[in-house]
Structures are given as structure tokens and as C-alpha cells.
Specification:
about 250 residues, alpha/beta, TIM Barrel, 8 strands, about 15% strand, globular, binds 2-phosphoglycolic acid
């Protein structure tokens, strides 16, 4: 039985003042959801604030990206060691917004995932197709290509130390989530591909769904057999909504 993880992705949003109330509500809310893992992925400047408010709570924190390089002349980048300094448990890698805006290739995303794992940070590795790719019937080919790059770089056994997130690009921030059938089909296909390499890793891997998850659709999505939680953008900025999604995961 896989545990469920509800991870908030704040993206480039927040301020010291706003975050304080949100983090305190999430900390209190996570305390009454002992069966669900909760986490927030905050902008780099707020990691210290997340650490200070969430230490000792049942909510973990992490980053939204990490460099694949250990240190050096990489202006603007943040290393795994720096995330460890801030006691991050997770980092997102390969979010579609980074793939699109920063031209991150499958190979680079895989290298970031490997660097995170080698530094004992759990990468939440995002895969997902665009609307054009879905409409052309290429959904599974795209997510398999993205997953295969990770498998080639990491090997299947190290993938056991990661979390996968299926995030159809057309569902992110649009209010239009994948239907339960669409989500389950892709999650099952991803799990099967991993299971074909190693059954135990495939059976145990947490695969999150992301893309317009909200209180009104969370119960249905979290109840799907191959969905092990959610990567939540917009709704993670509203404490009541984020906790409602956590409760849905606890009851699903
Ligand atoms: P959304 O974002 O929940 O606002 O659609 C999800 C994500 O990008 O991780």
C-alpha cells in the first residue's frame, strides 16, 4: 500500500507576510492528517521561513528546482547542498514551466533528478504532454520518452528514491483537470513501464497527479488506483483548499 503525498507548488508567489499565515495553517492542518504526507515547495528565498515555521510539524518543505551541478560558476542556480542546508526533503525537477521557459531537456531533468538523489533529496520528477501532443495521440509516447531519460540516467533502482508526477501541460493552471480516466490511463502506463524494469520499484513508486487539482475534484482523483497524491499549484496557496485536498487524500 503506497502512502499518499500532497505537495504544494507555490511557484513564484508569496511574500514573507503572506507566507507566515499560510505556513502556520498548513502546519496545524497537517497535524490532524496523520495518514497523508504533506509538503510545500516554496520559492528559494522563503526556504528559511518554511524551515523556521514547519520544523517539528508534519509538513515537509522543498524547492521547485535544483542545479545538476555541485557548485561553481552557475549564476542564479541553487545546488543540492544548499537545499540540504535548508533541510529540504524534496525538490521538484522538470516542471513543464521550466522545461518550456528554460529549455530544460529530458537529459538535463534526469541529471537534476540524479544529483538530488545522490544528495539525499527526493526529486519530484514531472512529466506530461502538451495539448497538441495529446490531440495528436502522442501522450504515452511523450511521457514514456521523459521517463526513459530518467531511467537511463538513474537506473531503475535509484528511481525508487524519487517521486514521479504526471502533469498534463494543458491542465496546469487552466482549471481544466484531466478526467479520472485520462489520469488513470497515464499513471497505469507509467507504472507498467517501471514495473517492466523492476516490479518492486514499479509497485512502490509514488506517482502524483498535477494539473488543476482542487477540493471539488480531489476525492475522485485521489481514489484512482494508480494515483498516489497530488502536486497542487493554485489551490496550495489557499490554506483551506490545500487542507481539503489533504483530507480527500486521507479518505480516498
Ligand atoms: P495547478 O498547478 O494546480 O495550478 O494547475 C499544478 C502545477 O503546476 O504543479
Amino acid at each position: 500500500m503506497r502512502n499518499k503525498l500532497i505537495a504544494g507548488n507555490w511557484k513564484m508567489q508569496g511574500s514573507l507576510a503572506e507566507n507566515s499565515a499560510l505556513l502556520q495553517s498548513v502546519s496545524a492542518g497537517a497535524a490532524i492528517l496523520p495518514t497523508v504526507s504533506m509538503a510545500v515547495m516554496v520559492p528559494f528565498p522563503y526556504l528559511a521561513q518554511a524551515q523556521s515555521i514547519l520544523t517539528g510539524s508534519r509538513c515537509a518543505w522543498g524547492a521547485q528546482d535544483v542545479s545538476e551541478e555541485p557548485s561553481g560558476a552557475f549564476t542564479g542556480e541553487v545546488s543540492v547542498a544548499m537545499l540540504l542546508d535548508m533541510v529540504c526533503l524534496y525538490t521538484i525537477v522538470g516542471h513543464s514551466e521550466r522545461r518550456a521557459r528554460h529549455a530544460e531537456t529530458d537529459a538535463r531533468v534526469a541529471a537534476k533528478a540524479r544529483a538530488a538523489i545522490e544528495g539525499s533529496i527526493i526529486p519530484i520528477i514531472c512529466v506530461g504532454e502538451t495539448l497538441a501532443e495529446r490531440e495528436a495521440g502522442h501522450t504515452l509516447a511523450v511521457v514514456h520518452r521523459q521517463l526513459d531519460a530518467v531511467l537511463a540516467c538513474l537506473g531503475v533502482h535509484r528511481l525508487a528514491q524519487a517521486v514521479l508526477a504526471y502533469e498534463p501541460v494543458w491542465a496546469i493552471g487552466t482549471g481544466r483537470s484531466a478526467t479520472p480516466e485520462q489520469a488513470q490511463e497515464v499513471h497505469a502506463a507509467l507504472r507498467l513501464r517501471i514495473s517492466n524494469a523492476d516490479w518492486v520499484v514499479g509497485a512502490g513508486l509514488q506517482i502524483l497527479y498535477g494539473g488543476s487539482v482542487k477540493p471539488s475534484n480531489a476525492l475522485e482523483l485521489m481514489g484512482l488506483p494508480d494515483v498516489d497524491g497530488a502536486l497542487v499549484g493554485g489551490a496550495s496557496l489557499v490554506a483551506d483548499d490545500f487542507m481539503a485536498i489533504g483530507r480527500a487524500a486521507a479518505t480516498a
